[in-house]
Write a structure and sequence with these properties.
It comes from Acinetobacter gandensis. With 295 residues, the chain is an alpha/beta fold. Helix content is 44%, strand content 26%. The chain has three domains: 3-82, Orthogonal Bundle (Arc Repressor Mutant, subunit A); 87-159 and 265-291, Periplasmic binding protein-like II (D-Maltodextrin-Binding Protein, domain 2, 3-Layer(aba) Sandwich), CATH 3.40.190; 162-263, 3-Layer(aba) Sandwich (D-Maltodextrin-Binding Protein, domain 2), CATH 3.40.190. The strands form two sheets. Strands 3, 4, 5, 6, 7, 8, 9, 10, 11 and 12 form a ten-stranded mixed sheet that branches. Strands 1-2 form a two-stranded antiparallel ribbon. Helix 7 links the parallel strand 8 (189-193) and strand 9. It is elongated, with a radius of gyration of 23 Å. 33% of the residues are buried.
């Protein structure tokens, strides 16, 4: 068994394709097949099932994939530690980011500062929902990710607090109020977000025993804004997900805080604090310096 074989195994599992894995690794497809055959012979198991041109991990393949990622992650950390000992700040950093809150509000400024300090670190960013990013962290697909806290199965580092706000058509009576009483939502048509904050909005409504009159369910923030602008209903979104520049393009939308005030905390998360690379540790420390709010 070699590290190269493990890397090929992980890449094929991620791409569900020998051809795509070979292309990304810059090797031939026959080399990919040979490496997997050697692993399967070494372990005396079948890693993939192959039916009608499609491949899928077997049960044992799924189990071994998690360990393979752990091994490769550890070797990367070791190499970065060696580089750091020689004063060479090189390596890779894989970051998970969810929605507008982190991808627009936090990540660009942080990446700019990080790049200035560590210009030789190669950075990859994967974007998905809050739940997807947490899964990527647990499966070692990313080294660190933004997350809505708490995350009991991960090691987390709080950064910043955010509130939920209401987007209200300016023709609605409640738009004249300084705050929107969350109970008033039941009296108006409601646009449910299907983006990263959907589960948090649903939990908020359940907490206050509110059954909204859902007229639309939409995943794109711009579409939600357009529908509110057309007086089609009220929406609840995270304040950080709503850029001022975008709101200004929708003159018939009024932004109001909720009453009672509803907060959420955003931070960074890793799978194991003892197994984070120097590049990842530096990213977390920089994020805490720039954004950490103690209260």
């Amino acid at each position: 068994m070699t590290f190269s074989q493990l890397e090929i195994f992980v890449k094929v599992a991620e791409q569900h394709s020998f051809t795509l894995a070979a292309r990304q690794l810059g090797i031939t497809q026959s080399a990919v097949s040979h490496a997997l055959k050697c692993l399967e012979q070494h372990w005396n198991v079948s890693l993939f099932s192959r039916e009608q041109g499609a491949i899928a991990l077997t049960h044992i393949g799924q189990q071994l994939l998690l360990h393979a990622k752990e091994v490769l992650n550890t070797t990367q950390i070791m190499q970065q530690e060696v580089n750091a000992a020689h004063g060479i700040q090189q390596g890779t950093l894989r970051i998970g980011s969810f929605g507008s809150s982190s991808s627009i509000h936090l990540l660009p400024e942080l990446l700019k500062a990080y790049r200035e300090r560590y210009p030789h670190i190669e950075i990859f960013v994967e974007e998905g929902t809050d739940a997807e990013v947490s899964q990527w962290i647990a499966e070692r697909q990313v080294d660190v990710g933004f997350a809505v806290l708490p995350k009991s199965q991960l090691v987390t580092f709080p950064l910043i607090k955010d509130i939920f706000i209401a987007l209200i058509p300016d023709s609605f009576e409640v738009a004249q109020q300084a705050k929107l009483n969350i109970q008033d939502i039941q009296n108006y048509p409601f646009i449910m977000t299907r983006a990263g904050s959907q589960s948090h909005v649903e939990k908020l409504l359940q907490q206050h025993q509110i059954q909204p009159k859902i007229t639309y369910q939409m995943s794109q923030l711009l579409t939600i804004l357009n529908m509110v602008n057309l007086q089609e209903g009220i929406a609840i979104v995270a304040d950080m997900a709503m850029p001022k520049e975008l709101l200004a393009l929708h003159p018939h939308v009024v932004k109001r805080p909720l009453s009672p005030n509803t907060q959420r905390q955003i931070g960074l998360a890793v799978k194991n604090q003892q197994l984070i690379s120097p590049a990842c540790k530096a990213f977390i420390e920089l994020a805490q310096q720039k954004f950490y709010q103690s209260n």
